[in-house]
Amino acid sequence: MIRILPRVILLLALMRAAWAFDAFTVRDIRVEGIQRIEAGTIFSYLPVKVGEMMTDEKASQAIRALFGTGFFRDVRLEVEGNVLVVIVEERPAIASIEFVGMKEFDTEQVKKGLHDVGFQEGRTFDRAQLDQAEQEIKRQYLTRGMYGVVVTATVTPLERNRVGINFTIDEGDAAKIRRINIVGNQVFAEKDLVALFVLRTPGWFTWYTKNDQYSRQKLQGDLEILRSYYLNRGYLDFNINSTQVSITPDKRDIYITVNISEGEKYNVSSVKIGGEPIVPVEELNKLIAIKPGDAFSRAKLTETSKNIVDRLGNEGYAFANANAVPDVDRKKRAVGFTFMVDPGRRVYVRRINISGNTRTRDEVIRREMRQLEGAFYDASKLQLSKQRVDRTGYFAEVEVETPPVTGTTDQVDVLVRVKEKPTGAILLGIGFSSADKLILQGSISQSNIFGSGNTLGAQVSTGSYSKVLSVSFTQPYYTVNGVSRGFDLYNRTTDASVLALGNYKTDALGAGIRFGIPVTEHDIIGLGISAEHTKLSLYPDSPLRLLAFENLFGSRYSFLIGTAGWTHDTRDSVIWTTRGQVRRLTSEVTLPAGTLRYYKLGYEHQWFYPLSQTFTLALRGDVGVGAGFGGKPLPFFKNYFAGGVASVRGYSTASLGPRDSNDSSVVGGTRRIVGNAELLFPMPGAGTDRSVRLGAFIDGGQVFADGQKIELGDLRYAAGLSLAWNSPLGPLKFSIARPLNEKPGDNIQRLQFTLGQIF
């Protein structure tokens, strides 16, 4: 303040000197000293125009206005006859901002932070703002735990009254968390409490996650996790008394100490429903997650409130509240709760608005909506609508909001905000094994062609085992009621010798039509019919069983195949599934016109269960059975096989099951059992990024021949890790597995991945 005062006095003195003249009528105004700023800009700030009277008061106003723009370092007013002369000295403009030595941040990200404090290229240079810019850069480094950073700013004058700003940065080393202490805990061990924290001391993955670097935001999140841990276990009086964060003088090591008071454990004495429930109290009582006698749990309390609010939302009460009012008895260490229900006004939906769909037509999204315009608000229908839009697979993100309509108390709008993802794909599949050659597979598809929601696809496989050329087209809404229709045309050539199935080839040509009929919101009945012609090619060294089959039934076979199935899908998302299940029942049977007669039945069940906000348990079971009838066997090329990325990872494709006693080739079987258990979780440090997901899995399965007794001990098992990543190059799926009970003769395939290019 003392340093600023002389400047103010000097400025006032200069201003007083500048306007100490007699009043006169301005005949002209001349501006001197401008280089970049237009004269018109200065004229706009002057309180006097040509032909008007100039006075000391107006001169004072002019000086203050021009200085207030921040454009000028000095401003003077002079009079030559009846001409007012405005003499200015412009502040220089910032021509460029450069960074030297910056490795931790992207320069554009830092420039954005400087823009927020008013320091950017093209703006007037101000020394005070330069100091703020230095502090902003240091602040960004401090958020990364880099406390030893040194920022030096250099100002270089340039032509045309401009300056170049250069920030030289010595980043130093990031400070690491060396210890986290929790003081005051008695019920739970310190190591268990520290394990809850995201922040931690240096470890195996902290080089990637940066969780060993102090962050105030992360610490606040960790303290809330700690608080929830106690409150969810009955410690109602838990409190965090203080938190100390200290750094060593060399700014390399950080120590965090958290002081807590645990308090006593409380049990729930009673739970009641009060207020205006609207729906029967008996029904709301079933939604209560916390019961008398349980330990107090804030999570269960919140869950109960949400359950009640969601239930009232299904009746149209979009703004309902259910607040838990506690009744604490500290002597008995007991607490009772009354959920005071306030339904608010019943509202209806005025309009459904859709945004973010630049390619996809509105109707593709609207036909999945179960909440209707003009109808009462229904939370369950909105949730179902979101799931159905998500399950189309056309969008990376789907969000549904219900903003109230301005000026009303009983209307809301529904805003469906989507983020489209590429729906066309060229996929490349690659497999390696110690026994097989490199297998390449490719396909091209567009699942939202022209934004219509229809799917057009073609597959080309150049694998040494199977060569496929197929074309398919699907209309998910062939009728307005949601009946789907699809067409398939394919040519499939299989060289079984590559996978040690015996030396033979089959060449199948087929075409078919299929329909999907929705019977409920989650259930679809599928019906279809197709025609297929298969040619069998055998060789002198082909297995005897195949030569015998050819002698009995020939080498050319025609089928008319009818298919029927049922699908039940309640997944919350196909993008990032965390809960729900998928059940599929399939059947395939040849009609009387065919050369051979057979049937195949299959059942698949996938189940997703959220263990926490981070971990999801995924279980899958797949069984199949087939047989011939009418005095004819199940064709050997229609047998079931197991092993490979789609069934039992860790074993080569189609390598499990019965083998020919003569040449040890894989025969396949009439029955198949496959099971998978996988723990899914996000990539550590990825935050809310849903493009990467890891998994730890155990697979098991086997194929059994007709008449062979099913023994669980014959199943093959494998365990490993998987990764699914929507990479910039396309979707990548990777797995590495280790067989757990391999037997002599098993073909092992430890590494498998597929990589696709999105367009």
Entry keywords:
759 residues; alpha+beta; Ubiquitin-like (UB roll); three-stranded mixed β-sheet; 35 strands; disordered N terminus
If you consult CATH, what is the topology of the largest domain? Porin
Query: Please, what is the average pLDDT?
Result: 85
Per DSSP E runs of 2 or more residues, the count of β-strands stands at 35
Q: What share of the residues lie within helices?
A: 10-25%
Strand proportion, as a percent range, falls in: 35-45%
| Biggest sheet record | 16 strands, antiparallel, barrel
What Rg, in angstroms, do the CA atoms define? Answer: 37 Å
Number of helices: 13
Q: Return residue spans where pLDDT drops below 50 for at least 5 consecutive residues.
A: 1-19, 431-437
At the fourth CATH level, what is the homologous superfamily of the largest domain? membrane protein fhac: a member of the omp85/tpsb transporter family
The CA-CA distance between the termini, in Å, is: 62 Å
CATH architecture of the largest domain: Beta Barrel
Strand order of the largest sheet: 18-19-20-21-22-23-24-25-26-27-28-30-31-32-33-35
Structural class: alpha+beta
Number of domains: 6
CATH first level of the largest domain: Mainly Beta
Gross morphology: extended
Structure write-up:
By secondary structure, the chain is α+β, with helices and mostly antiparallel strands. The protein has six domains: 4-90, Ubiquitin-like (UB roll); 93-170, Ubiquitin-like (UB roll) (Roll); 176-261, Ubiquitin-like (UB roll), CATH 3.10.20; 267-342, Ubiquitin-like (UB roll) (Roll); 348-420, Roll (Ubiquitin-like (UB roll)); 424-758, Porin (Beta Barrel), CATH 2.40.160. The protein is 18% helix and 42% strand. It contains 13 helices and 35 strands. It has a 16-stranded antiparallel beta barrel with strand order 18-19-20-21-22-23-24-25-26-27-28-30-31-32-33-35. The chain has a three-stranded mixed sheet with strand order 2-5-4. Strands 6-8-7 form a three-stranded mixed sheet, with helices on one face. A hairpin with a 4-residue loop joins strand 13 (321-329) and strand 14 (334-342).
